[in-house]
């Protein structure tokens, strides 16, 4: 097996022009029959790493996958591309299972997806032994680790595979990066001297934004208005919040549904189905939602509450933008969220060590939200990946904080805190500094202290921002064991009494405004407008086809593929094959429908008096199909007859049927094509014309060339 072969299969079956980073190396390792471990972020393209070997090697590849819903999706996707795939799990009837088994034994299936339970069950062993297995692919391999959050006991039994099938390579794949899990996978699966590939976990197409959770509802409705019709998930911590939020959003005219573990199974299934099929674009969900979903066109993830750790955050936002197109992650946070989690962890059964670990991770999460540092840099560093530049695609990079000498501000806060005998939390401290008229301030006599009202120059939010930095710099700390009161540390005392300096940042100006200024809606250019309009139309067509075939629309074509069609406006089979994501089977199945839609769109625009680049071939072609004479076409279109011929030849070359005998006889065709190797591409008609001493017409030569190219292509 060679990589050229792999590359050709990638194009033919999936319609992709090139491999993504590490895919070829991984495939080569499998070809070399090495055990292999792949760490790649969600959406990185793990599936291709076993699908291409499966399709190119002899025998059947067995894919272990823990998520039954995903299995069906993947198999449908593969079949849609003409790849012989099937699955066996508990959802199949006995008869269905038998039929898959027959296909397997007859060698008709290249990819078999099985649940781990099934694979390790006694009943399955005889079949397994009779198959010719090319590869075991273990997807979501981190499920094997008892340390991870998705631990599945059945996975630990997969050890037997290596013992039973020592000659079959094993490929383990996961999007969980940490070292402990990695080690667990290698050990538990018994991988032998595995090749290990670790891809970058950066997802540059996802823009990251973090905001304080004030007026969340208004912020969310404003966001949704800017993303009409797009698919997204809003993660909430509490089940109640999912329901309330969904209801409130629906009352505002958005189309949302709630999802959480307390809903009946059937209801959950329905919501998931509606989401996958683009019937309900927005789901307000607890983190239970999304695991079994492979929907590639999720355009945004909103966290209504702070996630409990950065692992969770990154996994959840990773569900957006799998198709590689721009996507957004918007996170709201408040200190209240931290308190809620702390309480949950305290009440949980976990042993002390685990509690501590959870709390430490939670603190990192909170720091991430608060620190005015490039978000991407912070997360990637957390996952142990070097990332030195600033990303330019997060709220901090877009709207950097303003650094200043914060000594005086810090001194005011520290002094007030000491005068309040370190008996207050953040909110009270800020209110005192700002001279609030709150009743309890007067009752407690806090209005009497010297620093009351000494910090009016900063808003409430600005003080919160400053205080949180003072926390990070270690000037103050939170006494969790004393009602979360703030305490001044030794470092803080040094600032207050020894005149040490500290630099702080002021919060960026309110972000919505700054962003609104930055991307003040420029009116779309005509090209963009054409593109958007056509895209919407193709999306509608895709939905209709999905409905007719009973498959999720994104399995027809991904957003990325439709985006390219909207940009390139393919009007022939050949144009279509240039579009990434259109393989041979998809061209056969959907080519006519989508080419038809593009053509119709172009015609309408032309009739409307607009210019559409690349449409000239189509106009000539349409007239020709109606039976208009060449000369008449030339006259009406105000082009030369030679140009008309050239248009027709181009359409022929790209896959349309033309009776070329009218211009070139089979004998002439043979002779002219036989001479083509003497010339270089792009062929100059005149050279060939003269080579044959004007024996053949220009038309004959043009069509001979077109015919040669057409044969090469199809
Ligand atoms: P993962 O399993 O790592 O989350 P997938 O295998 O589902 O990711 O791939 C994510 C998306 O990227 C899919 O839509 C897939 O078809 C697409 N993809 C994978 N490899 C390529 C490639 N070489 N070129 C273009 N698209 C690709
Ligand atoms: Zn950044």
Number of helices: 34
From the coordinates shown, what is the CATH architecture of the largest domain? 3-Layer(aba) Sandwich
Lateral strand order in the biggest sheet: 3-4-2-5-6-1-7
- What global shape is seen? globular
Ligands in the model, by name, code or SMILES, are: adenosine-5'-diphosphate, zinc ion
Within CATH, the superfamily of the largest domain carries the name P-loop containing nucleotide triphosphate hydrolases
Low-confidence stretches: none
Helix content class: 40-55%
Q: Return Rg in Å.
A: 32 Å
Instruction: Give a count of the beta strands, DSSP E runs of length 2 or more.
Output: 17
Q: What is the CATH fold-level name of the largest domain? A: Rossmann fold
The span between the termini is 24 Å
- How many domain modules? 4
What value does the average pLDDT take? 91
Helix-and-strand structural type: alpha/beta
Biggest pleated sheet: 7 strands, parallel
Which CATH C-level class of the largest domain is it?
Answer: Alpha Beta
**Fraction in beta strands:** 5-15%
Q: Would you mind describing this structure in some detail?
A:
- Helix 5 (94-105) links the parallel strand 3 (85-88) and strand 4.
- The protein is globular and about 105 Å long.
- By secondary structure, the chain is of the alpha/beta class.
- The strands form four sheets. Strands 3-4-2-5-6-1-7 form a seven-stranded parallel beta sheet, with helices on both faces. The chain has a six-stranded parallel beta sheet with strand order 8-13-12-9-11-10, with helices on both faces. The protein has a two-stranded antiparallel ribbon with strand order 14-17.
- It is built from 34 helices and 17 strands.
- The two termini are 24 Å apart.
- It folds into four domains: 3-198, P-loop containing nucleotide triphosphate hydrolases (Rossmann fold, 3-Layer(aba) Sandwich), CATH 3.40.50.300; 206-398, Rossmann fold (3-Layer(aba) Sandwich), CATH 3.40.50; 407-479 and 489-495, Arc Repressor Mutant, subunit A; 521-612, HRDC domain (DNA polymerase, domain 1, Orthogonal Bundle).
- The model has no long low-confidence stretch (mean pLDDT 91).
- 39% of the residues are buried.
- The structure holds adenosine-5'-diphosphate and zinc ion.
């Amino acid at each position: 097996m060679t990589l050229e072969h792999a590359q050709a299969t990638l194009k033919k079956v999936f319609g992709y022009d090139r491999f993504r980073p590490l895919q070829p190396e991984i495939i080569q390792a499998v070809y070399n029959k090495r055990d292999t471990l792949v760490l790649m972020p969600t959406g990185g393209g793990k599936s291709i790493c076993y699908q291409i070997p499966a399709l190119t090697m002899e025998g059947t590849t067995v894919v272990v996958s823990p998520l039954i819903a995903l299995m069906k999706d993947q198999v449908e996707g593969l079949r849609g591309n003409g790849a012989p795939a099937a699955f066996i799990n508990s959802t199949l009837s006995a008869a269905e299972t038998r039929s898959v088994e027959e296909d397997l034994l007859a060698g008709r299936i290249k990819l078999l997806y099985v649940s781990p339970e099934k694979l390790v069950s006694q009943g399955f062993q005889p079949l397994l032994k009779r198959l010719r297995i090319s590869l075991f692919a273990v997807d979501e391999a981190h499920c094997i680790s008892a340390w991870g959050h998705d631990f599945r006991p059945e996975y630990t039994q997969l050890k037997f595979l290596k013992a039973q099938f020592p000659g079959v390579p094993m490929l383990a794949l996961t999007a969980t990066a940490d070292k402990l899990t990695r080690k667990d996978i290698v050990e538990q699966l018994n991988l032998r001297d595995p090749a290990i590939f670790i891809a970058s976990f950066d997802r540059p197409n996802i823009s990251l934004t973090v905001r304080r959770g004030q007026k969340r509802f208004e912020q969310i409705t404003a966001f949704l208005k800017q993303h009409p019709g797009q698919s997204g998930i809003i993660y909430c911590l509490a089940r109640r919040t999912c329901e309330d939020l969904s209801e409130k959003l629906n009352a505002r005219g958005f189309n949302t549904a709630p999802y959480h573990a307390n809903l009946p199974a059937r209801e959950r299934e329905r919501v998931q189905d509606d989401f996958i099929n683009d019937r309900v674009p927005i789901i307000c969900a607890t983190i239970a939602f999304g695991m079994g979903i492979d929907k590639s066109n999720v355009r945004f993830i909103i966290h209504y509450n702070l996630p409990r750790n950065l692992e969770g955050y990154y996994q959840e936002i990773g569900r957006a933008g799998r198709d590689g197109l721009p996507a957004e992650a918007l996170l709201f946070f408040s200190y209240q969220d931290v308190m809620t989690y702390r309480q949950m962890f305290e009440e949980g059964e976990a042993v002390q060590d685990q509690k501590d670990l959870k709390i430490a991770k939670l603190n990192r999460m909170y720091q991430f939200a608060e620190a005015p540092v490039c978000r991407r840099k912070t997360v990637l560093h957390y996952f142990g990946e070097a990332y030195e530049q600033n990303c330019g695609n997060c709220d901090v990079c877009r709207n950097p904080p303003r650094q200043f000498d914060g000594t005086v501000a810090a001194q005011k806060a520290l002094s007030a805190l000491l005068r309040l005998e370190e008996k207050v939390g953040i909110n009270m401290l800020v209110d005192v500094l700002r001279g609030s008229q709150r009743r309890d301030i007067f009752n407690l006599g806090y209005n009497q202290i010297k620093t009351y009202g000494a910090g009016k120059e900063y808003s409430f939010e600005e003080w919160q921002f400053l205080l949180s930095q003072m926390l990070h710099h270690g000037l103050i700390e939170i006494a969790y064991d004393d009602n979360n009161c703030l305490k001044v540390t030794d470092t803080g005392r040094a600032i207050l009494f020894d005149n040490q300096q500290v630099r702080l940042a002021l919060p960026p100006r309110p972000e919505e405004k700054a962003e609104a200024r930055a991307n003040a809606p420029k009116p779309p250019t005509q090209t963009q407008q054409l593109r958007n309009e056509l895209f919407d139309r193709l999306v509608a067509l895709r939905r209709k086809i999905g409905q007719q075939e009973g498959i999720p629309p994104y399995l027809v074509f991904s957003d990325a593929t439709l985006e390219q069609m909207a940009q390139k406006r393919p009007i022939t089979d050949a144009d279509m094959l240039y579009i990434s994501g259109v393989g041979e089977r998809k061209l056969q199945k959907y080519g006519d429908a989508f080419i038809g839609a593009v053509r119709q769109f172009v015609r309408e625009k032309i009739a409307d008096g607009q210019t559409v680049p690349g449409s000239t071939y189509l106009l000539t072609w349409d007239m020709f199909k109606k039976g208009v004479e060449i000369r008449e076409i030339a006259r009406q279109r105000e082009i030369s007859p030679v140009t008309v011929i050239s248009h027709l030849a181009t359409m022929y070359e790209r896959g349309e049927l033309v009776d070329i005998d009218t211009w070139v006889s089979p004998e002439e065709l043979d002779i002219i094509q036989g001479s083509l190797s003497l010339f270089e591409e792009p062929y100059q008609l005149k050279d060939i014309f003269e080579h044959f001493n004007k024996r053949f017409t220009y038309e004959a030569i043009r069509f001979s060339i077109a015919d040669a190219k057409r044969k090469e292509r199809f």
